[in-house]
Amino acid sequence: MKLRIFPILLIVFFITIFFIFYKGLQNSNIYTPVVNIEKNIPSFKSKIFSTNEKISSEQIFKGDKFYLMNIWASWCVPCRDEHPLLMILSTQKNIKVIGLNYKDNKEKAKIFLKELNNPYDKILLDENGTLAIEWGAYGVPESFLIHNNKIIKKIIGPLNEDLLLEIKKLAE
Amino acid sequence: MASLIGFYSLIFGLCVSFLIILFSIKNFRNSNIFDNKIISLTFLQFFLVIVSFLSLILSFVKSDFSNQTVFNHSHTTKPLFYKVSGTWGNHEGSLLLWLLVLTLFIFIFLLKSKEHNKQYRILTLLFQQIIIIGFFIFVIKTSNPFNYIFPVPNEGLGLNPILQDPALAIHPPILYLGYVGTSIIFSSTLAATSLNYISKEWAKHIKQWILISWIFLTLGILLGSIWAYYELGWGGFWFWDPVENISLMPWLALTSLLHCILVLEKRLALTSWVVVLSISTFTLSMCGTFLVRSGILNSVHTFANDPERGLFILIFLFCLIFLSLFIFFFFHKTKNKDSNSFFWFSKETSILINNWFMIYFLTVVLIGTTYPIFLEVISSKKISVGPPFYNKLIIPFLIPFLFAMAIGPKLSWIKSDLKNKSYLILFLIISLLLSAIIIKSFNINFLINTILVTSAFYLFFITLRDFFIKGFKNLAQNLTHFGFSLLILSILFNNIFSTEIITNLKIGETFETDKYKINFESIEQKEEQNFKAIIGKFNIKNFDGNIEIMKPELRIYNQPNIVTSEADIKTNLLVDKFMTMNLVQNQDYFNIRYQIKPFMLWIWFSVTLISFGGLISLFKKKYEA
């Protein structure tokens, strides 16, 4: 009997391992870059989209308010998709939406906003894309939720309903 | 065109497999003479895979971007050498290489085993064909290297620059020779077990295959390690990265198999050990392939992740495991019960002790590598197991292991005694004193260090003594054990005496410690064929007045657009000086790492010595027989 039990145990053992590996395969293991959570926002100077006035980061992001900085461009198709959600966010009292217009043609950007409305409290200009690099952005669109001069959430890619709810919750 | 030929050769190769199986079964039943047609067919299969492989190389050389593999991994501006090595630097091509070695080895096996039993040869071939068919289907179905793209792109995506390195260009073929060599051991053991063919002669014959795989595996691991040291720029040679562990596990199993087969050859004992180890060596190689190719683990080796591939290898792997379990439990008979109980003070016992240690090391590495997968599946927590885990579990056990390695070969077979063994104690005292002096004089007073260094020195002196006393007798064994003691000593001293300076410097600035003065003199730019280099010039003044110029590089590759840091390494007999520089984002200073790493050269040298010992053993047996 002793000899019989051992092979069966071994087979059960290997079947278990098989299923664990099988399950493990279904977990995606694609590297997600480490998100710059709780990092201080970079300090920078930029121009305001409408007036070309110079403005510094300290003047934009003040104290304990919540800001959502959204990197966008008129040539970016997913930006169009997420725009209605930004419009909803802009009606929230406790969140201010700041735009960063990324490597864009100013006229086209104006048309874009005319067409879809303007959710932004302020729009900053990033004509050559250096500002976005300083923020550690990967591309457009991308949004950063900022509180007390710290990035508390970074969203790569367009916003969706779930993310919108999450942002609202974080800002409460 | 080349892709077409390559693809159809593969299909034909698969068909030949079925022909071989058909003929083999017929031959197995009917006649008493081995049918030479089978050998020709095996050669045909090998030839077809070679054609397929050459056409892939040709597509790479010609930069034929209608081939998807070439498009994904090559670029016109790449030097020819890396175009060719790019063939096996990717998933599809490397599997084709697996297949090539699989068919090559079974062909050689058939040629070299003529004096053996016909049924044994055919059965080995059949088991090997099961593996070959599995890989054929895997290549054709999930990772076809000859996929066609239309419209044809003008330019390829390029080879990852960290793979553009001479050591890495030959690392996969060498490693594969080792990995795939274990498949022959696997098939042959299964065949011998089912036919009850395990004998001293069989042991002698399979020992050569074990040695060949072992030599290549050792060299393959060495090359991978050299690559990591020179190219990754982290200043280390072993990171306990999953992929490194995966190559280490079959090595450990193979090493203990090598020792077991010696006992089998001499005394026809430990047969169960040999069977189990042969099976586990190959399944561990396959398991490694699964873990790397499926993307189930994260590591420095980033192959394209594809669950379908993973699933295929997983199912295939477990089929092989169950097949071998079935054969083991139903066919394996221990021939001689009392030949497995040894006198406690004998060579056999010491080899058995060695095996248990090896199995322990193997288990530690296996658990460390796969535990994150288990934990994630069971509790969806992500962890990574790092060097501290391995260091804590392995290093203490190295001490008795090293002592056993020193004393074991001194014992005689069957029964040994303590006569004329007083020198063993003498050497122990010498080693203890020597290491105490070294550890004390450098003020690193940890007990564990002293004992470790003692045990390594002990093995070192005892093997060294044998060179003088025994000369060429037992040279192979003595050389590998000597090499191993040298390896452990070099690694220990490397760990204990390494120093490192990390600082940020602008051009013209100087950084000073009590021992070194580092001056960042200048930078210059250089255009190369497929990258732009930024070369820093550093002037390092030693405390004893020696001046060293170091020129680490940053390389900006054009295709794909990746920045790599090329370390400047000044190597001499005793010490490596290692410097890297890195860009700090949006700042005009560079991050500088300067490391002094003693005995690096000796690490490479000792591993070469170890595999050289294997080589001697391989040839020695040949002319004795």
Task: Report what the structure shows.
The complex is a heterodimer of chains A (172) and B (625). Chain A is of the alpha/beta class. Chain A has a single domain (39-170), classed as Glutaredoxin, CATH 3.40.30.10. Chain A has 6 helices and 8 strands, in the order αβββαβαβαβαββα. In chain A, strands 1-8-7-4-5-6 form a 6-stranded mixed β-sheet. In chain A, strands 2-3 form a two-stranded antiparallel ribbon. In chain A, strand 4, helix 3 (77-90) and strand 5 form a beta-alpha-beta unit. The longest helix of chain A is centred in the first third of the chain and has 25 residues, at 2-26. The termini of chain A are far apart. The model of chain A is unreliable at 30-36 (pLDDT under 50). Chain B is α+β, with helices and mostly antiparallel strands and 625 residues long. Chain B folds into 3 domains: 1-164, no CATH class; 176-401 and 413-417, no CATH class; 499-601, no CATH class. Helices cover 63% and strands 11% of the residues of chain B. In chain B, strands 2, 3, 4, 5, 6 and 7 form a 6-stranded antiparallel β-sheet that branches. A 4-stranded antiparallel β-sheet of chain B has the order 1-10-9-8. In chain B, a hairpin with a 3-residue loop joins strand 2 and strand 3. In chain B, helix 8 runs antiparallel to helix 17. The mean pLDDT of chain B is 85. The interface between A and B is medium-sized, with 19 and 23 residues.
